[in-house]
Amino acid sequence: MPAARGPPRPGGGLTSAWATHLTPYGEARVAWTLENNTFTLNVTVPPNTTATVTLPGQEHAPLEVTAGEHHWSYGYQPPRQPLPPLSLDLPLIDVWDDEEATRELLALAQAHPPLAGMLKPGSGVSKLPLDLVLSFSVESKALVPEVAALFDRLNEERAAHT
User: Fold this and answer.
1) Residue 126 pLDDT class (50, 70, 90 cuts)
2) 21: enclosing H helix or E strand
3) In terms of Cα–Cα distance, which of 71, 4, 5, 83 is closest to 38?
4) Which of 53, 69, 81, 125 has its CA 20 to 30 A from that of 41?
């Protein structure tokens, strides 16, 4: 009997995926979602086949399933991916992935309301490097040394904890 295999890999911003494949035995389907720390997986295995299902967080215990519809739903939180070292040349969207850096950067920018607005998550400059965003005005250019010092401090603290 032919077997299908392919473990889901939620995380890194990926919260759902689905695929279908027409096999000589019929359609194979898989769909998964990760919502509110609940992982849900639906698998359809064609007749006369089996599938090996590897559930995230349970990689040590793959499941063999036979033809039919299968459903799993359980609490799951993907492992955190290591954050890149902070630097002024990071795109703003990558800085936003770092909650601590975003909080401290916004605190620095509070004295400059237009800059604070640009630095908030969701602003229209998300893909621009931070140093370019800081070059938009004389006031924000003056913050470059403070932001660089902030990033150096956070990077050093993190390196000391690894």
Assistant:
1) confident
2) strand 16-23
3) 71
4) 81
DSSP 11: B
Sign of CA dihedral 20, 31, 82, 87: positive
**CB neighbourhood size of 109 (10 A):** 22
Per-residue pLDDT band for 12 (boundaries 50, 70, 90) equals: low
Residue 90 burial (CB count, 10 A): 20
- One-letter identity of residue 61: A
- Residue 15 makes CB contacts below 8 A (sequence gap 6+) with 33, 34, 35
Specify whether the CB–CB gap between 74 and 41 falls below 8 A.
no
E strand or H helix that includes residue 26: strand 26-35
Q: Quick: pLDDT tens for 43-75.
A: 999 999 999 999 998 989 999 999 999 999 999
Q: Could you give the CA distance from residue 18 to residue 36 in angstroms, rounded to a whole number?
A: 18
Give the pair of three-digit tokens for residue 118: 């640009």
- Predicted TM-score (pTM) of this structure: 0.54
Nearest residue to 38 (alpha-carbon basis) of 24, 57, 22:
57
Cβ neighbour number for residue 10 with a 10 Å cutoff: 19
